[in-house]
Amino acid sequence: MLNIKEALRKNTMVIALIVVMLLFQVLISISGKGSLFAPSNITNLILQNSYVVILAAGMLLCILTGGNIDLSVGSIVVLVGATAGTMIVNMKLNIFVSIFVCLLIGVIIGAWQGFWIAYIRIPAFIVTLAGMMLWRGLAQVLLNGLTISPFPEDYLQYFTSFLPNSPKYTMIVSVIVGAVVFLVYAVLQILGRIQKKQKGYEVSSLPGLIIKLVLLFAVIAALAFLLGEHKGIPVVLILLGIVVFAYGYFTSKTVPGRHLYAMGGNEKAAKLSGVNTNKVLFFAYTNMGFLSAVAALVCVARFNSAAPSAGTGYELDAIGSCFIGGASAYGGTGTIGGAVVGAIFMGVLNNGMSILGIDANWQKAVKGIVLLAAVVFDVLSKKQQSTKG
C-alpha cells in the first residue's frame, strides 16, 4: 500500500495530465468540435509547444540552482529570430553559418547575464529583468518595427518537415521509430535497475517498473499510430527528443548535473564540499541563452517570419512548465521529464480551451490558477515532509 501511495505521489502531474486530456476529449466530443486526439491535432500540439519544451529544459537548470529564474528568454528569442531573419532572408547568407552565429549570440547573451548573476552576485531576477528590456529593445532596432519573411525552403526543411518524405511509408516509419524508442528506454531502465541493485542502492519494485513500461508502451504506440495517420514524424520532434535525452542524462547521470541539485539544496554546504557554485550558476544561465537561441530558430521556422512581437510571454510558459512539472520554487528539486510533462500540460490546456472556443482572457486565468495550485502543492508537501522528519 505504501508503494502505491508513493507511486501516486511521484506521478501526480502525469495522472492530472491524463485526467485533463480525457476531460477535454469528452467536452470537445459533446460540443461536436472534433477530437483532442485527432492525428492532425496531435501534430499541432507538438509543433505549437516545441519551444516550451526547449526553454523549460534550460529554465529547470536555473531553477535547480536555488529557485532562480530567467525573465529574458522571450526577448532573447525575438533578438535571435531577428538576427536569423536579417542574415538568412535579407542578406541571403549561408544557412549553416547563420545558424551558428545565432547560437553563438545566444551563448554570449547567456554568458553576459551569467557573469553578473554568478560572479557579481546581482539577483537573477534583476539581471534578467534588465535583459528582458535590453534584448527586446535591440530586436526592435534591428527589425525597425517590421516583420521579416518568408524564410527560404532550404531553412524551413530543418524544422518544419516530416519524416519520411513519402506519404506511402509514414505509418511504417512511425511504428518502427516508436518501437525503437520504447526498446531503448526499456533496456536502459532495466540495466539501470540491475546496476543499482548490484551496488546496494534502493530500487523501485519490479511490478512498479513493469506497470510503468506497459503504460509507456501504450503512450508511445498511440503516438506513433496517430503521427503515422497524419504526415509522419515532425523533424522538430526528433530535436525535442535529443534535447530531453541529453539534458535528462546530464542532470541525472553526470557530476556537474548533480552539482546543480547540490547547490539548490544548500549552497553553503555545496561550496564547503568543493563545488564551485559560481561556475555552476554561470553555466546554468549560459546554457539558458543557448537553448533560447535554439527555440528562436524553431519559432521563426514555424511562423515563417521574424516578427517584433515574437517571444512575448515565453518566459512565463517555460517557468510555469517547470513548476507544474514538479520543480521546487526553492530549488534543488525537479526533473527534465517533469518539465516536459508540465509543458505538455500547458499545451493541452491551451489547445483544449482554444478548440472549445474559450475566451483568451479566461484561458490566462485558468493557467494562472493551475500554476498557483502547483506551487502551493509543492510548498505544502515540503511542510508535511519536514513535519514528519
TrEMBL record:
Give Gene Ontology CC terms. plasma membrane
Its keywords, alphabetically, are: Cell inner membrane, Cell membrane, Membrane, Sugar transport, Transmembrane, Transmembrane helix, Transport
Give the membrane topology: Multi-pass membrane protein
TM region positions: 12-30, 42-64, 71-89, 95-118, 125-149, 169-188, 209-227, 233-250, 280-303, 323-349
Q: What is its main location?
A: membrane
**Pfam families for the chain:** BPD_transp_2
Q: Where is the protein found, in the record's own terms?
A: Cell membrane
Entries under CDD domains matching the protein: TM_PBP1_transp_AraH_like (cd06579)
GO molecular-function terms, A-Z: transmembrane transporter activity
User: What does this protein do, in the record's words?
Assistant: Part of the binding-protein-dependent transport system for D-xylose. Probably responsible for the translocation of the substrate across the membrane.
Q: What is this protein called?
A: Xylose transport system permease protein XylH
**Species of the source:** Acetanaerobacterium elongatum
